[in-house]
Structures are given as C-alpha cells and as structure tokens.
Design a protein that fits this description.
single chain; 466 residues; alpha+beta; Arc Repressor Mutant, subunit A; 3 domains; ten-stranded mixed sheet; three-stranded antiparallel sheet
C-alpha cells in the first residue's frame, strides 16, 4: 500500500489593499470589522474592481513554478451559505484559472524530489468566526483579502514529504516577496487529499481541511493514512470523508461525508470582465522577479564559497538572507561571515528584526580579521550587543583603548608563560603542535584577553624555536 498525497495550498498575497476593493488587506492586528466597505460586505449594488497588484504577485508565483500562464482567465462565483461569507458566494477561478502546470523541486533527506503543479488560481478569502463562551462573533476584516491557490498533482508519497514540500514552497514564496507565508497567522494554509494505492490502483480519497502548521500537516496525514489502513486491513471500504484537524487533541474530526457534499453552482461572475494577461505584461512581471532562492544559493556558492547546507539555512528567510549578503559583501573573508551569522548571531535572532545591525557585525568581523580583536572577546561583545547591553562600536572602542600593543609587554608575557609551563614547552619541542595553542591561551589569560592572539603566537614560536 502506497500513500498518494496531493495538496491545495492557499497563500495570502502581500498587497496593500483587498482583491476587489480599496480596504486595507493587513487585517491581522486591526480591530474587528474596521476594514470593511460595501464591496467586501457584499451590500446590494456594490461592484468589484480587480486589484492589479494581486494579479502580478500571483503571476510571479506562476512564473517561478514554471506554470503556463493563460492569456485569458475568468472569475467565477462559488455559491454557498456561511456566516463568514456575506455575499453568499466566493469569487474564485474555476473553469479558466490563471495558470496550468509547473513543478517544484525540493529536498527530502538529501534527495531531490519533484512535485508537479496542476493549476494556480486567484480567489478572495472569507471572514472569520470567533467562537466564545457566550456565542460566536464575526469579523469581516479578512473578507476579500487576496489569495493564490496552488493545487499539486498527487505526487507526494509520505506525510514527511508533504511537510518538506510546504517548507520549500514557503521559502520560495518569501523570496518572491509575494507573501509573508506565516502559517501561524494563516497566511499559508493547506488542504490535503490522501489515499492508499493498492497494486497501482488508486484508493478512495480522504480530505483534510485547513492545516495551518508544518507539524499539523505531517501529523494529520499520518492519522488519515492510519485510519485508511485500519479499514482496509479489516476488509472495510474507505468512504469519501472530509476531516478537520484538532491540533490540541492531536486527532482528526469528521466534518462531512460524501452524501453531504456541496453543489456550489459555479458560474462566471457577471460583474467582472475576463482577466487578460498580455505577453508584454507577463514580460514586465518576469523582468521584475526577485532572485529565486535556488539561484541565490548557486551564486553564493560561486561568489562566497557558501556550502549548500548553510545556504539552505540562511535562505529560509529572505530578511536573514539579505542580512548575510550585506555582511558577506563587506568583509574580507565572506566564508567566515557564514559562521558569524549562522553560529554566533542566529541563536539571538528570535524576532523579525536582527539582534544587531549588519554594519555592526561587519565592524566586529573586520576587527577580528585584522587581528586587533581576539575572537573570544568578539563573541563576548556580540552576546552583549545582542542582549542590548551595549553597542558594538562602543565595546570595540573601549577594548581597543586597553589592547596591549606594547611589543615589550607582549614579549614579557610570552617569556613568563614559557618559563612557568615547562611541560607544555617540552611537549611542543617533542612535536606536539597543539601545545602552542595551550601556551597562547595562557598568555591571553595573562594579558586579561587584551592582546592579539596572532601576535602572541608569533612571539611564542620565536621563543620556542630560539
Ligand atoms: Zn472593502
């Protein structure tokens, strides 16, 4: 029995206004029902006007996935009743979507996998129901917010693969600057179809709606597969069921069975003309495309020698990728910047904003590379600055004021260390090179971390060989 999984992914597009009206689209922190107008509330006589920017962002996604953009696409009404949908229908694209086909290649456990895309279309979001102890509240702020829906072919073969696919898609969307794609905020959500193929014959599909974390995707798919397997082993039929996922209880909830399936009575929206994407417009969108993450990784490898694994980590978030690039461009040894950003700075980077400005990290790395700031001291400064207990330029200045530059003082320290560590000296002379590191450490201690370890090592070597 082989799992067969397909995904339908909803991505909130990063436009200033909604899909068909001038209301602001960034509803997340806004007071309930403060971002509404007659259009998105579906009042009689209000007419939708398509947001050009939303189309351009959706086109970017289509181009990045290698999909075939249709010259003419069309908006349809999907009719159903639900309290969060004041118009009584959702405007979507069904019969003539924006684009067909395409694919996304990503990695699972170091191996490349390619998933084909079936289609991409633009649609509007619905409002939000907020269930409280005393009743259910409705917030219409999200009504009409633009989404692009990406539908894959059933090419995924395990829950883990589905999760990694989504992760790769999120990275792509963020680099395209089309969405923040934050699953916690619902900017990236996914429905999954799953079935078990027996000897090449496809089984009945189970659908899971509204998965909004990577963990939920993997767990819900695993649970749905277990449910199907159990039924098949018992010799029972798998019925077509739609589930939701209860994250807190870690279990599937039945939402509806096939008998209750909706008939949405789709028809072309008479208030909207067909959407025409001219070759010139498409070329313009292509020309303005940001660098794709895999292109960037390849360029980093070429220009800065960044290894693939590190590049993947740095590319997970474009803001961090930009930060790294700013640092790598400015320092004498760009490869060293990888370590500074990934190993040293990363642990402190918990908010959206970087813990210290790129210019300050550049200064710090430059001082270390010039040999005027010992590495341990630099790490200490980084920690202090990241915790808001000082600024890098000030810390460096105060340290430089006390760095031992006096050659005579350095020779004195080195001589003292050689005299008081006969065992290490003997080890070094017997060929144990690591003994030098120990002696440098001792000398740094004596200088209270205020000397340049490179210069101390040179002096110690001269003494040991002399
Ligand atoms: Zn509106």
């Amino acid at each position: 029995m082989e799992p067969v999984i397909g995904l339908e992914i909803h991505v909130q597009l990063l436009t200033r206004t909604k899909l068909f009206c001038a209301c602001r689209a960034d509803y997340f922190a806004a007071p309930p029902n403060s971002l509404t107008c007659p259009v998105c509330l579906g009042l009689p006589g209000a007419l939708p006007v398509l947001n050009k920017k939303a189309v351009e962002l959706a086109l970017r996604v289509a181009l990045a996935l290698g999909a075939q953009v249709q010259r003419v696409s069309q908006f349809d009404r999907k009719n159903y009743f639900y309290p969060d949908l004041p118009k009584g229908y959702q405007i979507t694209q069904r019969d003539a979507p924006l684009a067909w086909g395409g694919s996304l290649t990503f990695k699972v456990d170091g191996e490349l996998r390619t998933v084909r895309i079936r289609e991409l279309h633009i649609e509007e979001d619905a409002g939000k129901l907020i269930h409280t102890e005393t009743g259910t509240l409705i917030d219409f702020n999200r009504c009409g917010v633009p989404l692009v829906e990406i539908v894959t072919e059933p090419d995924l073969r395990s829950p883990r693969e589905a999760r990694e696919f989504l992760r790769a898609l999120r990275t792509l969307l963020r680099h395209l600057r089309v969405s923040n794609a934050d699953m916690e905020k619902g900017e990236l959500r996914c429905d999954a179809n799953v079935s078990l193929a027996l000897e090449g014959k496809l089984g009945t599909k189970t659908e899971i709606k509204n998965l909004n974390s990577f963990r939920a995707v993997e767990r819900a798919l695993t649970a749905a597969l277990d449910y199907q397997k159990e039924r098949l082993i018992r010799g029972e039929a798998v019925h077509q069921v739609t589930f939701g996922w209860d994250e807190s209880r870690n279990e599937l909830m039945i939402q509806r069975t096939k008998e209750e399936a909706h008939d949405y009575r789709y028809f072309p929206d008479p208030d909207l003309v067909p959407l025409v994407v001219s070759p010139e417009w498409l070329e313009q969108v292509r020309a303005e495309m940001p660098e794709l993450p895999w292109e960037r990784a390849a360029r980093w490898q070429r220009e800065y020698g960044v290894p693939e694994r590190e590049a993947e980590a740095l590319l997970s978030d474009p803001a961090r990728a930009d930060y790294f690039e700013e640092v790598a461009k400015a320092v004498p040894n760009p490869k060293a910047a990888v370590g500074w950003v990934l190993s040293e700075l990363w642990p402190y980077w918990t908010d959206e904003e970087p813990p210290i400005p790129a210019q300050e990290l550049i200064l710090l790395i430059q001082k270390v590379e010039e040999g005027v700031l010992p590495r341990p001291k630099a790490k200490e400064f980084l920690e202090l600055a990241a915790k808001g207990e000082g600024r890098i330029p000030d810390l460096i200045q105060s340290a430089e004021a006390t760095v031992v530059r006096d050659e005579e003082a350095l020779w004195t320290i080195a001589k003292e260390v050689v005299e008081s560590n006969p065992q290490a000296v003997a080890d070094f002379r017997a060929g144990k090179n690591q003994a030098l590191g120990f002696l440098v450490g001792q000398a740094m201690k004596r200088s209270q971390g205020r000397a340049d370890p490179k210069r101390l090592a040179q002096i110690l070597l001269e003494l040991l060989k002399g």
